[in-house]
Specification:
The chain is an all-alpha fold. It has one domain. It is 79% helix and 0% strand. The protein contains 4 helices and no strands. The protein binds protoporphyrin IX containing FE (HEM). Protoporphyrin IX containing FE binds next to helix 1, helix 2, helix 3 and helix 4.
Length: 122
């Protein structure tokens, strides 16, 4: 039961992170700048809490699955994706012109992490 609860926490955290990134990207692609974004704080909070819940759920599942250090390769890849998602919000605001590229990159990073979680290739 706990494993499935951790998975719900994990996926909810990832959804929150993606919502915050997506919202910020649509805003900057449409020409908006961070200083003028009235909803900046809720976006930042959703991003931060989302990352935290993704981490909590992910490591909770690892513990329940009896996976300890050194982690299998697929977990390392997912941790790198998590770190990139952490830095992406700042990049979106700093490089608004790269918005469309970051949009595609975010989708690709999610697909990579999901592939790793489901197929565990290494
Ligand atoms: C902090 C790093 C992360 C850790 C420790 C972690 C760990 C895990 C674990 C242990 C599972 C369960 C795998 C299984 O059911 O056998 C899982 C599932 C999943 N993770 Fe992560 N994960 C991390 C980051 C991410 C990120 C950044 C994403 C997406 C952007 C992601 C997407 C998923 C998805 C979609 C599943 C569900 C797969 C399924 O239903 O079987 N994870 N994760």
């Amino acid at each position: 039961m706990a494993l499935l609860i951790y998975k719900i926490i994990h996926l909810t955290g990832i959804a929150m992170t993606l919502m915050a990134l997506g919202g910020a990207m649509v805003y900057t692609i449409a020409g908006g700048r961070k200083a003028d974004l009235r909803w900046r704080k809720p976006v930042a909070i959703t991003h931060g809490v989302g990352l935290f819940l993704a981490l909590l759920g992910g490591f909770g599942m690892l513990a329940r699955m009896g996976i300890h250090w050194p982690w299998p390769g697929y977990i390392f890849v997912k941790v790198v994706v998590w770190v990139l998602f952490g830095g992406l919000l700042t990049l979106i605001y700093k490089k608004p012109d790269a918005g469309k590229g970051l949009w595609a990159a975010t989708i690709a990073l999610f697909a990579l992490a999901a592939y790793m979680a489901i197929f565990k290739p290494f």
